[in-house]
Write a structure and sequence with these properties.
mainly alpha, Ribonucleotide Reductase, subunit A, 10 helices
Length: about 240
């Protein structure tokens, strides 16, 4: 079966952008800072929960955060939780060969740290109901993630450029609104990663449009209004015994 003109165009574009990806990957690696989730979590505040360990059950009074801050953190975490779906989406668009594959896997590994540190912080500080949070995670991931852009290179790259910018702003603002210096420091660290991701995709999109200036990412305005973020999980932020 012969390739469609669109498929031929996309495969040609991926091939032509290989050197751009190598350059942007090198730039990213030179700027990215290694960090460790466990260093951002106040473990000394932790104590056993009810259940097999016979600890203390969660109650709303234990949370130091406002309802708005709790819900924002929950939404940010659930967004990170669907990482398997996002990995599949960008791997479908970019492939997993050469520099493209290196970037896809590196991006996935960096994003995974965000979910790790957010969940540890929320659990250790008893900021939200851990049972409701886990149920929300299961529900969110069972629904999965299906990219509206399919395997369209230009649409997909435009989408992730906007999305990384949106998550950077969301994480940074949530940290500031939390009123907790530890949370703000953690969210600023995550936002710094998201900013570097945004720069990678923005530069990649710019290079793609230079190669194919007559192409139009017709759905870009729509992409900028959409988000992979789930609806607020208010039950996880406010459920009490």
């Amino acid at each position: 079966m012969s390739e469609s003109p669109e498929k031929k165009f996309q495969h040609g574009l991926v091939h032509e952008l290989e050197q751009v990806v190598e350059k942007e990957l090198d730039r990213h690696l030179s700027m990215a800072k290694e960090w460790f989730p466990h260093q951002y979590v106040p473990w000394s505040e932790g104590r056993d929960y009810d259940g097999p360990l016979g600890g203390e059950e969660w109650s709303l009074e234990q949370s130091k955060l406002s309802q708005e801050a709790r819900e924002s953190l929950i939404v940010n975490l659930l967004t990170e939780d669907n990482l398997p779906g996002y990995h599949n989406a960008i791997a479908t668009v970019y492939g997993q060969e050469g520099a493209w594959g290196t970037w896809v896997n590196r991006w996935t590994a960096e994003e995974n740290r965000h979910g790790i540190v957010l969940r540890d912080y929320l659990t250790v500080t008893r900021a939200v109901d851990p049972i409701a949070l886990e149920r929300a995670r299961m529900n969110h991931m069972e629904h999965g993630y299906a990219a509206t852009h399919g395997d369209s290179f230009l649409h997909g790259t435009a989408y992730v450029s906007f999305q990384e910018l949106a998550t950077r702003v969301s994480h940074r603002n949530t940290g500031k609104a939390s009123g907790d210096p530890i949370c703000e420091q953690m969210m600023a660290r995550i936002a710094a990663d998201e900013n570097l991701h945004m720069i990678f995709y923005r530069n990649l999109l710019g290079a793609a449009l230079e190669i194919a200036p007559n192409e139009r990412c017709a759905r870009t305005p729509t992409s900028s209004r959409r988000s992979r973020c789930p609806a607020p999980a208010s039950t996880a932020s406010s459920r009490s015994p």
